[in-house]
Amino acid sequence: MRAWEIISDGGVDALALNERPDLEPGPGQVLMKIHASSINYRDLTTIEDPVSRKLPFPTVPNSDAAGEIVALGAGVEGMAVGDRVASCFFEDWPAGPISAAIMNTALGGARQGVLAEHVVLNAGGVIPIPPHLSWRQAATLPCAALTAWHALNQPHPVRPGETVLLLGTGGVSVFAQQFCNIMGARTIVTSSSDAKLARMRTLGAAETINYRNNPDWERDARQLTRGIGVDRVVEVGGPGTLQKSISATRVGGHVALIGILSGVAGTVSPTDIMRKSITVRGIYVGSRQMFSEMNAAIAHHRLDPVIDESFAFEDARTAYHRMREAAHFGKLVIDVS
Ligand SMILES: NC(=O)c1ccc[n+]([C@@H]2O[C@H](COP(=O)([O-])OP(=O)(O)OC[C@H]3O[C@@H](n4cnc5c(N)ncnc54)[C@H](OP(=O)(O)O)[C@@H]3O)[C@@H](O)[C@H]2O)c1
Predict the structure, then answer these.
(1) Atom 31 of ligand 1: nearest residue by CA position
(2) Pairing with 259, which of 41, 79, 154, 223 sits 20 to 30 Å away (CA)?
């Protein structure tokens, strides 16, 4: 079978499409034939900088796959050949709080990834996909969708009528918009692009701000809540945006800290967090139980993930280059078979 491999620190252009031995599932495992794999910003940065992550060479990238079970290992119950499943970002996070041990089960990082024609995973590391979704759509769920779902549902769900601030229009933020729609929450969305903001309004955004034209977007966001501040922020910007997100948040509000799109260093005022009694909560994707609840909501509301563009398996490098250009809206997907 063929798999894309990170074989050096040479970045996207050094990715190699190589033959690997065919796989057999061991006890408690399933063999999955992969039909599609979506990419996340984290996959791009892993390929660009495998050394600081101490990745062994070769490593197969990507956490997100959708496909069908083609063989079951001994002792696997409740699953059958032909089942349509997605990979779980963490192969071994069934439920409950995260731990260091769980973090060591991330696909396309601590464990080999899924940009391959087949993969063997623990039975608890795959999950049935909502029936109405195509392979491409289902492949968008394991990381971006689940992260957005987690951010909006923990430590308690966003309530109808609450206001949520979303930064940018990448994979996580577009899913967050779609989930806010079904949860009855009002959104304020920022983007560098007016065209993308128009698309977000079509998708249901109540208010939009161009953060490139309005560097004081946090003040605008506050004004759009009559000076009170937003109830929750889905914070994908990180160091360059966090202080502004805190400023935009109401007393007692929540900041779900997810990403580092704006770099890895910045200044944050602990005083603002303390005086406003804001909860800043780190999010790391989510558990299989959260994934199951999210899939139930997606199936019930027949939610369709937003895919900007898809790429042939042999053209995977172009998908990562496209992500670095940041012109996409929603998700980028690679067709595998
Ligand atoms: N902690 C976790 O579990 C977890 C899970 C998933 C993702 N993440 C992280 O979350 C971030 C987003 O991931 P993704 O997959 O959604 O990425 P993505 O699809 O590549 O999103 C990129 C978009 O983010 C927006 N953006 C970039 N810089 C920004 C800034 N300074 N302020 C506001 N928006 C900005 C841009 O939107 P516009 O073009 O509209 O301006 C850009 O198109 C990444 O840092 C990723 O590593 C973390």
Answers:
(1) 262
(2) 223
